[in-house]
Structures
1.
Amino acid sequence: MSRDEQRGEASGPDAPDADLVLDEVEQKYRQVFDGAAIGMALVAVGPEPAPGTLLDVNRAMCEMLGRSADQLVGMPADTITHPDDVAVGAVAAERVRSGELDRGVVEKRYLRADGAEVWVRVTMSAIHGPDGDPLHLVAQVEDITARKDAENELIYRAMHDPLTGMPNRSHAMEHLERALARASRAGGLVGVLYLDLDDFKEINDSLGHAAGDELLVAVGQRVRSVLRAGDLAARLGGDEIAVVCDGLTTPGEVAPIAQRVINTLSAPIEIADRVLHVSASIGAATGGVGATADGLVREADAAMYRAKGAGKGRYIVGDESLAALAARQLEVEETLRGALEDDGLRLVYQPIVDLGSGRVVAVEALLRMVHPERGELVPAEFVDVAESRGLIVPIGRWVVEEAVRQAAQWHAALGDRAPQVWVNASDRQLGRHDLAGVVSDALAAHGLPADLLGIEIAERRLVRLDHFERDDLAAIRELGVGIGIDDFGTGRSGLDYLRDLPVTDLKVDDSLTARLGTDTASTAIAESLVTLGHGLGLTVTVEGVETAAQLGWLRGWACDRAQGYLLGRPHGADEVGAVLTEPDGPVAQD
Ligand code: C2E
Ligand code: MG
Ligand code: MG
């Protein structure tokens, strides 16, 4: 019933006394309002009282905010909102007030009277007067603090080493990537130290793992104690620590930092009632414009090995000069351009196994480049250059076309047993480069059913998409093509994007798989990611499965799919085609 009809009924010739009806309506409304289990508030739209003023609040809202109705009514909503979240709320309220949105939903933080933060999900809608103008807004306020805490905990754990509490490898790599991006925008250099304890294995073997663990914690603390506030020390695994130093101006500045770390570690450390003398070997490297995170870490790692070889307890600064680095990148770029023109690119396919049936139900297409002297190169050696030189767009187009051609060939040969083919894409192919157009053309040219294709984008790239890129992704999904989040569990931001993007699949990162059963935090995180995916109705694939024990964990969680060397390495299309036609898949059912 429209608002006009409602009014017509109440004021018609046979209607009971309009004031009585209104009283009754008002009473019912009060009951609903006061008794609601979630917080509710009426908010002014202005001009008088000022927009955002709280006109009425219910009991649940008062409890949530630890304030009485008397305190709240008449207060601007901004005063109870976390300062960083005032703008999001105001924008949504204005869009609802102006009629642009029927309903506005925001997640933001309120501040309780005691100063504590409460995460809330606010759903706003407008109440209109007889002339259709908004009279006020109704806000329904749900306390989502527990969910946000769990999300933050998950993110924290995914980024930290459980033993030492230091950032872990993926955290360090992301930090380094960002530092390098800043350095190439603003000038300056980033330094990396790669530290490995000398003779750690002997300490571990003679004093036991508990003492070894204690030592690692102590070493982490010592290293951090000699760094500047902006520097990051991360545990890469085992007894390896990396330090990322931001904002250096000359390559020479990294040496004194390495020396400080060597010095602090040379003082005796007391562990398990013993006084230990430890030392570390350190490799250092610096990079600026054109340097990559992987390249820099590799260089520091190589220097660390030379430091060990030169007699331990010392540091060596890597000598790959900026000029040499630039030359190597230029060489890769030229080879890539050549490969694009002269059939130098190829795709290999890695099986993805359905854990219910044991069958290969999908494959992931992985790119290889043939280098005239160095043979076949893997993406780590050329994808970042392709991205920074704008070559990822034509290369990505080639990958989609080739993968779709191959998928169509399997479809023709195998019918129902044809695998879904997943293709990796970079965020740079989206938006103005119209990946949806490329995909749609390829599907049409080869007559491939859209559900036999999927596009994977890494989580860390998804969280920074602008709305053109999001639209492109939505258009791909509209075609019927799957959208997968790759390397899931390594990103850093909240999980909100999962709700907003048209995702069909999650691929849990292999860094978690590697620690299944050996590290309780990683195991718990991996399990909760599988559960999270299922809760959202997504297909979950776990990557990097190398052992039967890891596969056992996944089966226990009813994970949908698995991928990894245990189930099959990436191979050329012909070899993979042979596996696909086997009557039983590569995984025996137990
Ligand atoms: P990804 O999409 O996460 O692909 C999985 C990578 O893990 C592949 O490495 C694969 O060979 C490797 N892998 C699979 N199973 C195991 C295992 O059990 N253990 C271990 N240790 N590794 C395993 P690859 O082929 O070197 O690819 C690396 C990354 O390069 C890919 O990671 C993807 O992000 C990117 N990439 C690959 N092809 C393309 C492409 O066509 N376009 C773009 N933009 N990126 C691509
Ligand atoms: Mg992938
Ligand atoms: Mg992956």
2.
Amino acid sequence: MTKRVAVLPGDGIGPEVTAWAVAALQAVGRRFGHDFAFAEGLIGGRAFDETGSPLPAETLALCRRSDAVLLGAVGGPKWDENLPALRPEAGLLGARAGLGLYANLRPATLHPFLSDLSPLRSAVTGGQFDMLIVRELTGGLYYGARGRDGERVFDTMVYTEAEVERVGRRAFALARSRRRKLTSVDKANVLDTSRLWRSVMHRLAGEFPDVAYEDMLVDNAAMQLVRRPGAFDVLVTENMFGDILSDEAGMITGSIGLLPSASLGAGTFGLYEPVHGSAPDIAGRNIANPAAAVLSAAMLLRHSFGLAAEAEAVEQAVAAVLAGPRRTADLARAGDMVIGTAEMGGQIVDRLKA
Ligand code: IPM
Ligand code: MG
């Protein structure tokens, strides 16, 4: 049966890196005998320029009739003066909410052969780590009521018990499929939403007795990430805390150019995008690392299509290229040969064909 993938390249380096994610999926399709159909849609600044909306109704409709979505990145200085609802970022937030994608999976892995790229000493990282941040994606401060009344401006953090429970359940299940450890990050010493969060997580912990569970306050979590990153397996946290901690976790892997993400809802449908942004300063210059986009395609194969062996083939192809001497500038050390987006993507796809 044909599996339908909506492709939303977006802005900046989005189109360049997404092209390689598509090429990787095509190579997987040929090698393993799967039929993937791709259809492109507009999102972000480009969608605003062409249609007046950062999330045209046609794009949401395209996503809804697809089995999964591959997204590049949105945003750029060109649209900085747009009204909030017309910013490229509003397109992304609208897609997350509109598609019910409440669980955002952001793995942060330090490969042993790239461990010298981490800004943390190897005595701190232990030379490698492998954690997964599960960020609640459709609630909290991002979607609560906001406004202005005279001098007062406000954003509100709102969570329902059901919203906390569904993302918590996802995180416990993921921990069960990994090293069986879950850290729930909150600010329960101050916030009522965090006290609700913590009580729901404690109830779930009773249902998953095989998962070692701990609570951690968010300020302490920010510290522990740079103190002993190897101690984490799965972290679960609310939307804004997850936004901040996932950038921190990404940074200590040495390159934001390697980090994929998956945004999932109730079924197998999901949206997959690199964690890095649109990087307008390097757009169109054949510099960007396509690895994060390609690794996002691997997450798509695993989570939306249930193709674990195919996902591993993609991850191994990327790892083999990362271990080699020819890499994009973000990963180059003195003496390395620097290659461009196309060469890096080409190397990955060649390995997939083999
Ligand atoms: C992310 C980004 C987005 C977010 C922005 C672009 C709205 O920072 O995906 O982490 O804050 O969620
Ligand atoms: Mg962010």
3.
Amino acid sequence: MKKMISGIKPTGQLHLGNYIGALQPFVQSQEEFDVNVFIANLHCITMPIDPEELQTNLRDALRFYLAVGLDPKKSTIFLQTDVHEIAQLGFIMSCLTPMGELNRMTQYKDKKDTGISLSSGFYTYPTLMTADILIHKAQYVPVGDDQKQHVELARNTAERFNNRFGDTFVVPEPVIAKVGSRIMSLSDPSKKMSKSDKDGEKGVVYLKDTLKVARKKIMSAVTDSIGIVQYDVENQPGIANLLTIYAALKKISIPEAVSEFKDVQYGGFKKAVADEVCALLEVLQEKHQSYDEAYIESVLQEGADKVRPTAQAVLKEVQEKLGMEILK
Ligand code: TYM
């Protein structure tokens, strides 16, 4: 069975973009692949955090992993820091990655000009992500469009390592959803829907939003004055985004979604999208509440225990190849 690895960094509450771009594809892959998903808590501290808020976000994220349908009997779910080898391989990866490559990372370029004081951890975080991926020797990495560049960095590092030190890593491929790999903000459809969106109150539907709030956000989504529901990203980015959300949730193609709303006005169309989103949130929120702490802890414990042997073996192999090990 081919292996998949992916993670989410819950620096804020999970949102509809995370669900459509990542969580839904993880769940759909469970029957066919050995799916490994983790909560990237080291990545969470690359920007300033509030410990209490982080703790809540981590626990909520884990509950949503389960609520969306990730089944611990089929998939492996773990917390990044429960597998210590990842951070150690992360340091090694940072030593094997030229700064020039990190300077080209879009997320770094976008942040560095904002004037925010950035930590060195934020700068090197793509090298930790390289370790997150390569340590599992997985073939596939399902991610949203914004993480593709980081998976490509991991591929480059794997290839470079294999060429220089002998075949070690699997060179992983990014898997990007056909529909919904880049859900846009509802209030500004030129921007990605994002946890760090300052306009989050209006642009982002959080999985924890009340149904009333979620519906209001969809009903107030920015559209245009053209008045026809059609998929035209250039001229009707708001409508195109709502069509994408609808198609992804209904698991239909964009043309199928368009044909459903051929003669429907924007108000009716938005209501249909809101109905779909609210139906999803209702189910997720009910399940979110249903797990007790002992179960959550057992899922994490078992997940880390399952992943650790491979992580240890791969780290040892890498260190041996680099000539770092003394004990056999
Ligand atoms: P993060 O936490 O920003 O996002 C988690 C996943 O959700 C996807 N995503 C979206 N997809 C569609 N539309 C959106 N608006 C949207 N926003 C987010 C992301 O592409 C991602 O798949 N560095 C990563 C976490 C990570 C990781 C890894 C992922 C750490 N190590 C190893 C894969 C493999 C991150 O910050 O994702």
4.
Amino acid sequence: MKDHLIIFDTTMRDGEQSPGASMTKEEKLRIARLLEKMRVDVIEAGFPAASNGDFEAVQGVANAIKDSTVCSLSRANDRDISRAAEALKGANRSRIHTFIATSALHMEKKLRMTPDQVFEQARLAVRFARNLVADVEFSPEDAYRSDMDFLCRIIEAVIKDGATTINVPDTVGYAIPELYGTFIKTLRERVPNSDQAVWSVHCHNDLGMAVANSLAGVKIGGARQVECTINGLGERAGNCSLEEVVMALKTRRDYFGLDVGIETQHILAASRMVSQITGFVVQPNKAIVGANAFAHAAGIHQDGVLKARDTYEIMRAEDVGWSANKIVLSKVSGRNAFKQRLQELGAQLESESEINAAFARFKELADRKSEIFDEDILALVGNESVAREKEPYSFVSLSQHSETGERPHASIVFTVDGKEIKSASDGDGPVDASLKAIEAHVNSGAEMVLYSVNAISGSTESQGEVTVRLQHSGRVVNGVGADPDIIVASAKAYLSALSKLRSKADRVAAQG
Ligand code: KIV
Ligand code: ZN
């Protein structure tokens, strides 16, 4: 296995830490199933000690996933580690990932601990975790800004105590590729028992170098695990992007010489799923998964590609899931074709009743929209999922009037815990009027910090996908809604965000 590079996905843990990106258990299950299908080696599913909801999500993923290792994060204390082990009980293969900060700045200012105390706590944590599972990862948080001697000392000790993977985070995205690669190399050379653990890289993207740093950690440093997220989701500027690092390793296998087990044809589906669940839109020029990543606009490029593809293409679009024929279904398509396309897109639904419900929504949409694209199908099972029907706030219908020179007015019907509410308001525009009509009844007190509209499949016939980010009492949530009518999509997104705010508030209340 020396030449195998472990892909460790942390979309559902580090990725979820970005403001508004929180995911429900059902959403995590959908992502996890697709990651397993992609043959991701390790799936970090969450931080069970953070909330009951996260505990249940990790537990759900651990019970459902059979082929990938399911990993659970914990601080370096017995309570967190026990919680992580408990959540992982149903897993076929499980890993506990425990961390404690090791930089002078973090130890002194954040932990208020001496290096010796941190050293002892790390050892106790790893020993405790090793008694519960065989696979234990240790991360010295802010490793890249830690003192090299101290880092060597603590890493040597935790390997003796049973850590099987040593992860070296560049927590604040401060590293430079060559320096980070050399940093890992030096650690591996100086830690006497370094060959008894797998070395891992975990890079943040604050200076836009997370992928480059990770690759340098592999090439120069000899790391054999990369921690990454779909679409590079993550704290602040995000993490190393899975799709970019995987395609770099595969496309330049001549240089890296490592085997990566990822089935890359599912990459685009995973990118879209994560984008739709979190409401984080993928920029058009994003490598691999952006709408323009394989689009050749300049005539000279088009001419070249038509004559010989590799004049301007270093990868095949199909290999990462872009299909040549994007129109997939229409209203004459049957349930089986719909189900098969769902599977191909990695959007498996749990039960026949979920498929039936999604198919009914598909038929409704196909009555209003002649061509149904992959993006529409993913939106149907994502934003319009059966789970949404269980949300406290749910859209029913909307009518609005807007005319040049007149103040727009909207009347909306929605349900709150199953009870139908009718409300109306005027506003600066039809979207504003619709959301004000919702607020006239709900009075959430939430502040809207983001509103964005995106055409799902790029034309005016497309569905509009709206993201609404709300903030209340320190909590930030994103709601996403899709519909051919962007005012309806806005109302759906707003109601979804309100539902998430409420379920977050309930979770906090349940924790006391
Ligand atoms: O960035 C970081 O340091 C982390 C650790 C918890 C691994 O995410
Ligand atoms: Zn991180």
